[in-house]
Amino acid sequence: MVDNSLSPHGGVLVERVAPLTSGDLDRVAHLPHIPVRDQVARECVNIAYGFFSPLEGFMGSADLDSVARRMTLDSGYIWSIPVVFDLSRSEIDQLGLKVGESALLSYQDQPLAILDVEEIYSYDKEFMARQVYGTADEAHPGVQRTFAYSDMFVAGKVTLVNPPTINPPFDRYWQTPRQLRRSLAERGWSKVVAHQSRNVPHAGHEWLMKGAWFASEADGVLVSAVIGEKKPGDYIDEAIVLTHDLLREAGFFREGTHLTSTLMWDMRYAGPREAVFHALVRKNLGCTHHMFGRDHAGVGSYYDTYAAHRIFDDLPDLGIKSVLTLEWWYCPVCGSVTYEGLCGHRDQKQDLAGTLIRRIIQGGEEPAPTTLRAEVLEVVRDCAEKYGFGSPFVEDNYLQNRTPVMSMPVLEVGCTCSGTT
């Protein structure tokens, strides 16, 4: 009997990886070549290695409509975020793409994946945005992303034919779902609570993880750091990953109770819907629990503080348990970081907000351990010099000159396309 709590979403871990051999190069050289942008390249990798199980490719119209309207795939499995491949009508005509045929997707001027075209269709992008994000306000970054899609979508299964190389320092932390499941088993972890992160950890994050560890009675905490599209002012990817791992290295989590990993994903800031997506992906990684705090995956004031908690009330058992936590803050009366559900000094609380932590980092002050660990700050500053061109926050120089997270091995297939889709 299969333990559903440890099963991938859909029951089978998708793996669609078939590296090209020298004998295959001629076979794929005649295929239409489509260069893809960073987001699509990352999603090809995630589909092929099973991060998005049970998806085997980019969604067709039936799946997209079902996800938008009912938050399920057409098969009935819960799924909350569209995963689509957009092309313009003129690009489709120029490439001669046809249903039943295949195309070679390229990235960094090298082959990446083969897409078997199953459907070419259009969809109402405003309706998609309203359903997924609860708004069509173009100030919402997820809505912006949706409205920027081209006017057509191409659906079909994806096969990774040129697995990318993950560059340092991320190579130490990136594992496929199968590899990560093996790592968790080798550690003897049968209960694993996931922590979604796109920030350098302050004291509130640390205690969020510790509180969830206690609440779930887990063997360990898996930090799943999101590495993806960056905008000016975000933390640089290297600082996010290395500071989280520092919590283990410096002993703030005992060895054997904390593990840092990465997920290549461009945040949609979809609030409650993205919380469901995060749970399903971490289920595919082998986690049994997922922690959700205040404003999970939110942005601005589009979602109320605990919208990501309530969405699970109306869902069936997902095979991964939600650990729902309130806010952790610093209380000067208690003299410590404390929990909203326990502390009676709410009117005197000091929020451990991102703006406060950024002020500490930028101001050159040594923080109190009740806000930000000095050891974490040291790593942040080291990352600024080593990776961020002097800043731990994303600036134009970083965007233009950083070492990419992944690089494509060189294969001579004669890809001559220009542009990026």
Any guess at the CATH architecture of the largest domain? 3-Layer(aba) Sandwich
Strand content: 15-25%
Order of helical and strand elements? HEHEHEHEEHHEEHEHEHEHEHEEEHHHE
What do we call the CATH topology of the largest domain? Rossmann fold
**Residue runs with pLDDT of under 50 for 5 or more positions:** none
Structural class: alpha/beta
pLDDT average, as an integer? Answer: 93
Biggest β-sheet, characterized? 6 strands, mixed
**Could you give the distance between the termini?**
44 Å
The structural domain count equals 2
Mind telling me the C-alpha Rg? 22 Å
Shape: globular
How many alpha or pi helices?
Answer: 14
How many β-strands, per DSSP? 15
The proportion of residues forming helix, as a percent range, comes to 25-40%
* CATH homologous superfamily caption of the largest domain: HUPs
| CATH class category name of the largest domain | Alpha Beta
Question: What is this structure's SSE topology?
Answer:
Elements (H helix, E strand, L loop, with lengths): L24 H5 L3 E3 L2 H12 L7 E2 L2 H10 L15 E2 L1 H7 L6 E6 L2 E12 L3 H9 L7 H7 L4 E9 L4 E2 L10 H10 L5 E6 L5 H14 L3 E8 L9 H13 L8 E7 L7 H13 L4 E4 L14 H4 L10 E4 L3 E4 L4 E4 L14 H10 L10 H13 L9 H6 L4 E2 L14
Q: Describe it for me?
A:
- By secondary structure, the protein is of the alpha/beta class.
- It has two domains: 4-166, Sulfate adenylyltransferase, CATH 3.10.400; 170-401, HUPs (Rossmann fold, 3-Layer(aba) Sandwich).
- It contains 14 helices and 15 strands.
- The protein has helices at 25-29, 38-49, 61-70, 89-95, 125-133, 141-147, 177-186, 203-216, 237-249, 272-284, 307-310, 354-363, 374-386, 396-401; strands at residues 33-35, 57-58, 86-87, 102-107, 110-121, 152-160, 165-166, 192-197, 220-227, 258-264, 289-292, 321-324, 328-331, 336-339, 406-407.
- Strands 1, 2, 3, 4, 5 and 6 form a six-stranded mixed beta sheet that branches.
- Helix 3 packs across helix 5 and helix 9 packs antiparallel against helix 13 (374-386).
- The longest helix has 14 residues, at 203-216.
- The protein is globular, with a radius of gyration of 22 Å.
- The model has no long low-confidence stretch (mean pLDDT 93).
